[in-house]
Amino acid sequence: MAELRHDWTIDEIEALFALPFNDLIFRAHGIHRAHFDPNAVQVSTLLSIKTGACPEDCAYCPQSAKYETELEKERLLPLDEVLEAARRAKDNGASRFCMGAAWRNPTDKNLEKVVAMIEGVKSLGMETCVTLGMLEDRQAKRLKDAGLDYYNHNLDTSPEFYGNIITTRDYQDRLDTLEHVRDAGIHVCSGGILGMGESVRDRASMLRQLANLPQHPESVPINNLVQIEGTPLAGADKLDPFDFVRTIAVARILMPTSFVRLSAGRTDMNDEMQALCFLAGANSIFYGEKLLTTDNPEAEHDRRLFERLGLHWLEPQTCHQHDDEGDVPAQAAAH
Question: One of 96, 98, 169, 266 is an active-site residue; which one?
């Protein structure tokens, strides 16, 4: 079993990135196999419950009100539409239903509407996750009381590079929200985005922030930038696929018992690249044809890929870590 550490240095992590590719993948896969069924993948579906008109200026995001994109803003979806989408997701095999709203932070009135959604999805027997922006501690506690399983709040990038991507909130604001979520007893989902012009050291620094939290995030989404016309990052240099796979492997080494998720950008990954990511320690994906506002691989394509690779899906009850971070997650059960 790999040691669970919270004291990684930037130099140690950069040294991992610098390993020969085969050595890095071998090490990461060994750690992955020690903690998880290597052929099991947790599957989530993500729905945008409120789209567009966000006051933030995240340079990658088409939902920002500051950029001219073709995205149309929408009001918060009604409860019945959300629950119908959750039922379809469950019928298609998803074990977790994630709901995202383009807010800087939710008002208490809107939070109560999301609470009703969480309670409704939970009643279907699914895990729940929401991403609503920054939270106050009392709001996190309210979500916990509603039965929320996971809260997503990505760090996006390193503290050093952050100002190049976002100016409307501080890095510490993100860390504070993660602390409120953890203190409320909700599982943390937090990761970042690759391909925004960051350096290898920035990737190492971002992962260091996550790995050196008091408790590792239970879920670590790694996004490959989806370039959207009208956003400042449209036209950015494409990321080398091997650099993406390396980041997956390093995340697995640093956070041995976390689920590492292939998130946005899978439409730009061929099957071989995704297979390398699974080998390197990725064991979670978003399933369905939309991730908030960007495209995702077709569900049938994912089914065929899983069949080709001999992968199977996790049941909902096997997707949580134990509260004691030193415990090994329950091994996968196949559908």
Answer: 98
Beta bridge partners of 129: 98, 150
Task: Name the packing angle between helices 200-211 and 10-17 (round to 10°).
Answer: 120
> Is 189 one of the catalytic residues?
yes
Q: Average pLDDT in the 295-320 region?
A: 75
Residue 309 CB burial class (10 angstroms; 0-12, 13-18, ≥19): middle
97-111 pLDDT tens trace: 989 887 878 889 999
- Residue-level pLDDT at 72: 59
Catalytically annotated residue among 5, 27, 33, 54: 54
Residues of the chain with pLDDT > 70, as a percent, come to 85
Q: What is the mean pLDDT of residues 141-153?
A: 95
Alpha carbon separation from 256 to 82, 111, 124, 245, 309 (Å, rounded)? 34, 33, 30, 16, 22
- For residue 98, indicate whether it is catalytic: yes
Active-site choice (96, 169, 174, 189): 189
* Rg of the chain in Å (alpha carbons): 18
Q: Please state, in angstroms and rounded to a whole number, the distance separating the CA atoms of residues 92 and 283.
A: 18
Query: How many C-beta neighbours within 10 Å does residue 300 have?
Result: 10
From 142, 174, 208, 261, the catalytic residue: 261
Tell me whether residue 319 is one of the annotated catalytic residues.
no
Query: Cα angle vertex 49, ends 111, 72, to 5°?
Result: 125
* pLDDT tens figures, 230-280: 787 778 889 999 999 999 999 999 999 999 999 888 888 999 999 999 999
**Among the options 27, 61, 169, 208, which is catalytic?**
61
- C-alpha angle with apex 24: 275 to 3, nearest 5 degrees? 105
The reported pLDDT for the residue numbered 316 is 55
The total of other beta-carbon atoms located within 10 Å of residue 13's CB is 22
Q: Confirm whether 129 is a catalytic residue.
A: yes
Catalytic one among 58, 252, 266, 277? 58
The reported pTM is 0.86
Active site residue 277: no
